[in-house]
Structure formats: structure tokens, C-alpha cells
Amino acid sequence: MIADPAVFDDEHLPRRLLHREAAVDHLSRAWEPALGGDPAHDVLIHGPPGVGKTALTRHSLQKLTGHADVQTAHVRCLGKTTAGVVRSVLHDLPGNDPSVNVPREDLCIQLQERVTSPVIVVLDEADGLPSTDALDRLVDVENLSSVVICHDPDEWLSRLDGRLRRRLSFAEFGLDRYSVDELADILEARANLGLPSESVTREQLEVIADEVAGVARNGIQALRQAALRAEELQHDRITDEDVSESFERAKRHIRELNLESLPFHHRLLYELIRMGDGLEAGELHDQYDAIADQAYHGREQTPISERARRTKISKLVEYDLIEVEGKNRHRVYRVCDREVVAQILLNHVI
DNA sequence: ATTCCACGGGAATCGGTGGCAA
DNA sequence: TTGCCACCGATTCCCGTGGAAT
């Protein structure tokens, strides 16, 4: 059923971005100076998750670098320190990576030296930065211009000093969620590329677009899951049931990927919570202590303190893997989807 | 009103890595 | 080669907070 799986990857960039013409124009204008070898203008792009901010930027940068001598760096800011951001920019530019123990100030100096012609740096998920210090460092570099991608522009701008705020709000724009029709167009284009012709109807695509409320990323994943289900059940085209089942499957898939990406501590706590099906904090800690020695036996890691467990638990919540009910000592932990299982062996322990 | 208890922020610390100078 | 230093991520320790239980 799926002719080309890559079409449904998060990283896949379509040749043409549908329904983002205005935004593409906006970016081209801001970057126009770079065509003549001058620094581009800074840009602030905002909008809810999954509406194509990153795709838009990557797509437009690709076009730009095709006919202008511009270097680019794409930084995923989430959880990065200032040094981490600068390091990541250096990584994307030509030259060797500085070693891990180079002080922050030296990294900034290296960056100054390395940027001799126009460079555009994308700070993706900039809300994830602890401070705006990283941006301060970047704008200090001559010839370097930035693209800041964030969810809440007001919150972001309020964190900046006047000079930076003016620089960024010069070319600022937001992306909205797609309408059902627009997203259905996007899904149709993907289906044409990745699925055999006529395997999905326009109506089904609209159902998906509607269900995911205009969030392109989720829509594409749902379409993929619908196609996978059709494949498993050997339908020659996607059925309405494949579609209605696809949403839960897409969510589950994302959760499974998230869970597997986490270290052992997290997965062990997750598994305890899953088996407990509604555990109070006290119970959770007791169970952890009871099995810790055996569970960690033969592993590099060692059991962690209660405080550290709380940090892991917050991470599980952040990743939408568990939920918390109640307050204070009566809060209860529960997994969001009991079908999502951590692939660790606990049966011999519990 | 007081006690209890878990949360979560922040500072200190630990362990591993790698450059650099003696 | 060896010792020293700076980095960083992960962890522990300390503690203020706040709502339920007593």
C-alpha cells in the first residue's frame, strides 16, 4: 500500500509548499539582501506546533542557498544552553567541531572568526531556551542573521531588550493552523506521492484534516497509520475504519517512539506506573525501592533518589506518556495508554 | 492551628571528556 | 606522560510551598 514511506517522514520536504505562499514571500523579502552578499534581515516566525514553521523555513532556505552564497545553520534549541546553541551553529558551518571543553566565551570568538560571509541561523523551538543570551551572542556576530521560531511571540519579545526586539519585529509573522480544506490539499499531495492512486478519497482526507484540527504533522501521521492499517488488513484501498482507527494508532506510535527514546530510569518508572494503573507517589517510591536492586542488576546505571525520580516523572508527563490526577500527597500517576509498553524485562522482578 | 507529605526550584557536587602546559 | 583546568549532563542535597488530614 505505501509506495514511498519517506513521504510520511517528519523531515520530508515537499517540492512545493501549499497554502504558505504569503509566508514564503515574506521570507524571501527578508532575505533579499543576502542575494547581494549583504546580511539578511532577522525574522521571527510564530504559531502553534505542527503548522509547518520548520518546514517553511527549511524549504525557503533550501531555495535561497540554491542561488545565493549563503551558509545556514539549523539549531533545535529545546534544552540547549547558550554554549550548546553556539556549538550547534559551529557544527553546521564548515570547519571542525570545537572539543567539548571549550569555554563558552571561546566558542563565541570562534563563531565571530568563522562567519565571514552572510550566514542565516535558525533558532527552532526558541521557547525552549532558558534565556535569550544565546540570541544576544548570535546577533553580535557581523554578517549573521537569525530566524527565531517560537510559539508565543509576545512572551518571546518581552524577554528581549529594546534593540533586539526592534531587530526581530522588523520581519515578524505568524502561521495559523490550516483550514480543513487546506490541510486536505496537503494530505492529498502526500497521498499522490506516497500511495497508489485512488487509495484514499478526498472525503477521508477531509475527515483526517478535521480530526487533527489543522495540525499538519498529526494529519500526515494519521494518514500514514491509516495506510499501514490498510496494508496489514490487505485492503486494496483505505477504508473509513482505517481512517477512524488511525488517530489512536498515530498517537500510540508517537508515544512508543517517545518512550523508547528515554533512558532506563524513565522506562522503569513508566512500567511501574503502568502496572500499578493508578499509583500514589508513596506507593510508587516503595515499589521502586523494592525492585531497584534487581531491576538495575547488570546495568551501568544505578537506582536514583526520590528527587531524581520526580524529575523523570515530569519528563514522562511532558512527553504525554503519563498523567497526574489530584494534588499534593494525593496525586495519582497513571499511564495515558496502557497498550504502550516499555520494552524492558520486569516480569521476573515483580 | 498544626502536622504531614510530595512537589519542584536552585545550588552544590560528581564523573567523564579533552585540551594544554610542564 | 602527568597533572590541571574547564566544560557539561546528571544527580543529590536542601528547602520553601501549599493543600489535605488531624
From TrEMBL:
Keywords: ATP-binding, DNA replication, Nucleotide-binding. One of its GO terms (molecular function) is ATP binding. Residues 39-179 form the AAA+ ATPase domain. GO terms for biological process: DNA replication. Signal peptide: none annotated. The keyword Cytoplasm does not apply. InterPro entries: AAA+_ATPase, AAA_16, Cdc6_lid, ORC1/CDC6, P-loop_NTPase. The keyword NAD does not apply. This is AAA family ATPase.
